[in-house]
Amino acid sequence: MWIGRGKPDRRAALFGGVGEVRVWSLMTGALPPFDCVLGCELDAGGTVGVHVQDKCCEIVIVTEGHGTAHVGAETLALEPGTVVRLRLGEKLALANGSDVDVMRYLIIKVSVP
Protein backbone atom coordinates (compact mmCIF):
# COMPACT_ATOMS: atom_id res chain seq x y z
CA MET A 1 0.00 0.00 0.00
CA TRP A 2 2.82 2.43 0.72
CA ILE A 3 3.25 3.38 -2.93
CA GLY A 4 6.79 3.44 -4.24
CA ARG A 5 8.27 1.66 -1.24
CA GLY A 6 8.72 -1.76 -2.81
CA LYS A 7 7.62 -5.06 -1.35
CA PRO A 8 6.82 -5.20 2.37
CA ASP A 9 8.41 -7.30 5.05
CA ARG A 10 5.67 -9.86 5.81
CA ARG A 11 5.32 -10.82 9.47
CA ALA A 12 2.90 -13.64 10.27
CA ALA A 13 1.52 -14.02 13.82
CA LEU A 14 3.61 -11.06 15.05
CA PHE A 15 4.36 -11.43 18.77
CA GLY A 16 1.92 -14.36 18.90
CA GLY A 17 -0.87 -12.46 17.15
CA VAL A 18 -3.25 -13.58 14.42
CA GLY A 19 -2.90 -12.95 10.69
CA GLU A 20 -0.21 -10.99 8.92
CA VAL A 21 1.29 -7.53 9.28
CA ARG A 22 2.95 -6.07 6.21
CA VAL A 23 5.69 -3.55 7.08
CA TRP A 24 7.40 -0.98 4.86
CA SER A 25 10.43 1.01 6.02
CA LEU A 26 9.64 4.63 5.11
CA MET A 27 12.79 6.38 6.37
CA THR A 28 16.14 6.23 4.62
CA GLY A 29 19.31 7.28 6.35
CA ALA A 30 19.91 8.21 9.96
CA LEU A 31 18.23 11.07 11.78
CA PRO A 32 18.87 10.68 15.52
CA PRO A 33 16.99 10.35 17.78
CA PHE A 34 14.59 8.77 15.23
CA ASP A 35 15.38 5.10 14.64
CA CYS A 36 12.80 4.36 11.98
CA VAL A 37 9.43 5.19 10.46
CA LEU A 38 7.36 2.18 9.43
CA GLY A 39 4.19 1.94 7.36
CA CYS A 40 2.13 -1.04 8.55
CA GLU A 41 -0.94 -2.89 7.30
CA LEU A 42 -2.69 -5.38 9.62
CA ASP A 43 -4.97 -8.04 8.11
CA ALA A 44 -8.73 -7.85 8.59
CA GLY A 45 -9.47 -9.54 11.92
CA GLY A 46 -5.74 -9.60 12.67
CA THR A 47 -3.92 -8.91 15.92
CA VAL A 48 -0.42 -8.05 17.05
CA GLY A 49 0.34 -9.84 20.31
CA VAL A 50 1.54 -8.24 23.53
CA HIS A 51 5.11 -6.99 23.36
CA VAL A 52 7.30 -4.65 25.41
CA GLN A 53 8.91 -1.47 24.10
CA ASP A 54 12.37 -2.51 25.26
CA LYS A 55 14.65 -0.52 22.95
CA CYS A 56 12.76 2.55 21.75
CA CYS A 57 9.89 4.83 22.65
CA GLU A 58 7.21 4.59 19.99
CA ILE A 59 4.34 6.54 18.49
CA VAL A 60 1.64 4.66 16.55
CA ILE A 61 -0.59 6.76 14.27
CA VAL A 62 -3.65 5.11 12.70
CA THR A 63 -4.23 6.22 9.10
CA GLU A 64 -7.04 3.85 7.99
CA GLY A 65 -9.44 1.46 9.66
CA HIS A 66 -10.38 0.94 13.28
CA GLY A 67 -9.59 -1.36 16.15
CA THR A 68 -8.17 -1.35 19.67
CA ALA A 69 -4.80 -0.92 21.31
CA HIS A 70 -3.95 -2.31 24.71
CA VAL A 71 -1.27 -0.23 26.43
CA GLY A 72 -0.52 -1.78 29.78
CA ALA A 73 -3.91 -2.14 31.49
CA GLU A 74 -5.56 0.57 29.33
CA THR A 75 -7.68 -0.14 26.22
CA LEU A 76 -7.79 2.56 23.55
CA ALA A 77 -10.16 2.83 20.58
CA LEU A 78 -8.30 3.22 17.29
CA GLU A 79 -9.55 5.19 14.28
CA PRO A 80 -7.86 7.40 11.68
CA GLY A 81 -5.91 10.13 13.45
CA THR A 82 -5.53 8.27 16.75
CA VAL A 83 -2.03 8.62 18.23
CA VAL A 84 -0.82 5.99 20.72
CA ARG A 85 2.22 7.04 22.80
CA LEU A 86 4.45 4.32 24.21
CA ARG A 87 7.19 4.96 26.73
CA LEU A 88 10.14 2.66 27.14
CA GLY A 89 9.05 -0.47 29.04
CA GLU A 90 5.34 -0.21 28.17
CA LYS A 91 3.42 -3.17 26.76
CA LEU A 92 1.39 -2.93 23.55
CA ALA A 93 -1.07 -5.18 21.70
CA LEU A 94 -3.16 -4.21 18.64
CA ALA A 95 -6.37 -5.60 17.14
CA ASN A 96 -8.01 -4.76 13.82
CA GLY A 97 -11.72 -4.23 14.51
CA SER A 98 -12.84 -5.14 10.99
CA ASP A 99 -13.38 -8.60 9.52
CA VAL A 100 -13.25 -7.09 6.01
CA ASP A 101 -10.80 -4.17 5.84
CA VAL A 102 -7.12 -3.86 6.70
CA MET A 103 -5.98 -1.38 9.36
CA ARG A 104 -3.11 0.88 8.32
CA TYR A 105 -0.84 2.75 10.71
CA LEU A 106 2.54 4.41 11.03
CA ILE A 107 5.11 3.58 13.70
CA ILE A 108 7.75 6.15 14.62
CA LYS A 109 10.54 4.82 16.86
CA VAL A 110 12.83 7.08 18.90
CA SER A 111 16.03 5.99 20.65
CA VAL A 112 16.27 6.70 24.35
CA PRO A 113 19.75 7.59 25.63
If you had to describe this structure to a student in words, what would you say it looks like?
This protein has one domain: Jelly Rolls (Sandwich). A hairpin with an 8-residue loop joins β2 (20-25) and β3. It is mainly β and 113 residues long. 0% of the residues lie in helices and 56% in strands. A six-stranded antiparallel sheet has the order 1-2-3-10-5-8, with no helix packed on it. The protein is globular, with a radius of gyration of 13 Å.
Helix content: under 10%
Mean pLDDT: 94
Compute the number of helices.
0
Number of strands: 10
Determine and state the CATH class.
Mainly Beta
Low-pLDDT stretches are: none
Q: Mind telling me the CATH superfamily name?
A: Jelly Rolls
The CATH architecture: Sandwich
Summarize the structure.
With 113 residues, the protein is an all-beta fold. It has no helices and ten strands.
Give the topology:
Elements: E1 9-12, E2 20-25, E3 34-42, E4 47-52, E5 56-64, E6 67-71, E7 74-78, E8 83-86, E9 91-96, E10 103-111
Antiparallel strand pairs: 1-2, 2-3, 3-10, 4-9, 5-8, 5-10, 6-7, 6-9
Which terms summarize this structure?
113 residues, mainly beta, Jelly Rolls, six-stranded antiparallel beta sheet, four-stranded antiparallel beta sheet, 0% helix, globular
